Amino acid sequence: MRRLETRKTSWLKKILLLLFICLLPVLLVSPRSMTAKMLKDSANGTKVMVLNYHKIDNMNISLSVLPKDFEAQMAYLKENNFHAITPEELYSALSGNSELPENPVLITFDDGYEDNYVNAYPILKKYGFKGTIFVITSFLDKSMKNYITWDQAAEMDASGVISIQSHTVTHRSMTELSDDQLRRELVDSKEAIETHLHKKVNFIAYPTGTYNLHIAQLVKEAGYEGAFTIKYGNVDKASNLYALERVPVFHTENTFKSFLERIQYIPIFERLGWIKS
Fold it and tell me: Region 136-159: what's the mean pLDDT?
């Protein structure tokens, strides 16, 4: 029994030593410079961090990042030379038609809550950043409490700070719908935004993150150039345009610490082959 325990301990030490050796190059990089370094060019091109928010308010629930925490995160990105891009710029770069700025980040919000207009929009303007809001089009009405109105959506989109894109009509899980229902969710939401805002809509975020290859094909047929999931990771040229990764940001006991851990460690895991498939 003692020999068996000794053998197990020996193997554990070997595994820990191997893990340490793999992580040593990363550990020698300072935390502040690590994110920028890991997001630079790799075999699949520049890695793009796509942040995924929902609410920016003081509700103290998981989906609600406090405005002060959101501002601290934007200040960090600004101080560390991140450049906010649009979905169109991301698509162009992934298609090989343009180059991205240094340390690109795409800042996205799901659902279209009113606090995005009241709290997030002014903070983005303050730091000179762009953002994208994926809206549930049937919710954008003055009678719908806690969601932006079409007038607010139009103001933000016209400013060049916010790009309004689709999150379907009703936010139903797409894997539970028939093909006819899926097409209505995809096409009607796209047409609603294009009609109200007089612009072309090219991108969608899957409600609840649920999708499959068949749904992705229907998204493509509906005229979208790309779709965003809640799959955890950074986007690069190896990414599927209709299953783009994002890094979700939540309210926690220490939201800023959690934010730093997410944006710093995801590139490390990808580099070691633990996430990207």
Answer: 92
Cβ 228 vs Cβ 213: under 8 Å: no
Rg of the chain, C-alpha, whole Å: 20
Structural domains of the chain, ranges and CATH numbers in brackets: 46-271 (3.20.20.370)
Task: Say how far apart CA 99 and CA 234 lie, in whole Å.
Answer: 17
Q: Identify whether the C-beta of residue 196 lies closer than 8 Å to the C-beta of residue 153.
A: yes
3-state secondary structure 205-224: ECHHHCCCHHHHHHHHHCCC
Could you tell me which residue, 265 or 163, shows the higher pLDDT? 163
Residues 52/263, Cβ–Cβ less than 8 Å? no
> For residue 27, is pLDDT > 80?
no
Q: What are phi and psi of 4, to 5 degrees?
A: -65, -45
Q: What pTM value is reported for the model?
A: 0.82
pLDDT, averaged across the chain: 86
